[in-house]
Write a structure and sequence with these properties.
The chain is built from eleven helices and 13 strands. Strands 3-2-1-4-8 form a five-stranded mixed sheet, with helices on both faces. Strands 11-10-9-12-13 form a five-stranded mixed sheet. Strands 5-6-7 form a three-stranded antiparallel sheet. The mean pLDDT is about 95. Bound molecules: zinc ion. The site of zinc ion has 6 residues, from loops.
Length: about 325
């Protein structure tokens, strides 16, 4: 066996979604002139297998070992760390998945220690909104920011918060549930049990529910956020107006975050990436009406820029970048 190349460091990233899982392998060249140079060598993804976590954990280990072996055949290298970006609720301190909504059997899964043991490197687990916030902050649309809000804007709405250059998790690692701030008193019912949450209006699921009500009178209207964006792009007046209304709801939620946190960057995920300026322009107009100019002066509201790479980059950020951030106190499973 050839000796490992001491100038390279490898990372395994696991992007654990509700419907699919991706494992990626990354390589950092330590004496590269660009210090941030880390390259994705390969990745594998599959729809989450039924029957609970066991078959998925086994497959993650098998695929990760396969990726490492293939990389080693080219240049032998050491695995520095494993990062897992997952939908919550989870405990980043112990590396445990507490549960995954809509997936049976995923309760109290010690994923960090399992992967650390089977892959022989420290493994850490982070909430996906937090992981995406760190990834966009270090590699994407948040570069150069000191206080950043990342909003997922997907089926649901969650936030990852970078405050003064640190990831903010909160006392029980539950910070960032920005989708559940009430923006309409006694408004639409939300999956969390409350009424009038931001998520019930401006998430993909919330938009679909608002459309469902309107479609009772006119079935020719779009039925999903994706359809709204597609039709707005070709000038459909209903869809443009629907996006403007969605932007106003989104602004109501962002106003609270802006007044409380004074961010210099707000990075918006999926739906905002798809809709672009069709959503962002009315959103900035609403913010202009609702927020003091002094708070808007240094603030940029932008779509996420990592695109399809975001999930894999988020997992990489958990492995590679979180341990180096100031104030990060997570236990590194496998190094205890
Ligand atoms: Zn809610």
């Amino acid at each position: 066996m050839r000796a490992s190349d001491p100038r390279t460091r490898r990372y395994i990233g696991v992007d654990l979604g509700g419907t699919k899982i991706a494992v990626s392998i990354w390589e950092e060249v330590l004496d590269h002139p660009d210090k941030a140079s880390v390259e994705k060598l390969d990745s594998v993804r599959w729809p989450t297998l039924g029957d609970g976590p066991a078959p998925n954990l086994e497959k993650i280990v098998k695929e990760a070992r396969g990726l490492l072996e293939r990389a080693d055949r080219r240049v032998p290298g050491d695995l520095a760390a494993v990062g897992i970006s997952g939908g919550g609720p989870l405990d980043p301190v112990t590396g445990t998945i507490l549960s995954i909504p809509n997936l049976t059997g995923w309760v109290d899964v010690p994923m960090g220690s399992y992967l650390a043991e089977h892959l022989g490197a420290p493994a850490r687990l982070e909430n996906d909104a937090n992981a995406c916030a760190v990834a966009e902050w270090l590699y994407g649309a948040g570069r150069g920011s000191s206080t950043l809000v990342f909003l997922t804007c997907s089926t649901g709405i969650g936030a990852g918060l970078i405050l003064d250059g640190r990831l903010h998790r909160g006392s029980a690692s539950l910070a960032g549930e920005a989708g559940h701030q009430v923006i309409v008193p006694d408004g639409l019912a939300c999956g969390c049990g409350n009424r009038g949450c931001l998520e019930a209006y401006a998430s993909g699921a919330g938009m679909a529910r608002r459309l469902e009500v309107l479609r009772k009178r006119d079935t020719s209207l779009p039925s999903t956020a994706r359809e709204v964006v597609e039709r707005a792009r070709v000038g459909d007046s209903f869809s443009l107006e629907f996006l403007r209304e969605t932007a106003e709801y989104l602004a109501r939620g962002l106003v609270n975050l802006i007044f409380v946190l004074n961010p210099d960057r707000i990075v918006l995920g999926t739906i905002a990436v798809g809709a672009g300026e069709l959503l962002l322009r009315p959103l900035r107009e609403s913010l202009g009406r609702l927020v003091w100019p002094s708070l808007l002066e240094g603030l940029r509201v932008v779509p996420a820029s990592l695109g399809e790479e975001l999930g894999d980059r988020a997992a990489l950020a958990v492995a590679r970048d979180l341990p180096a951030l100031p104030g990060d106190t997570c236990t590194e499973s496998g190094q205890r």
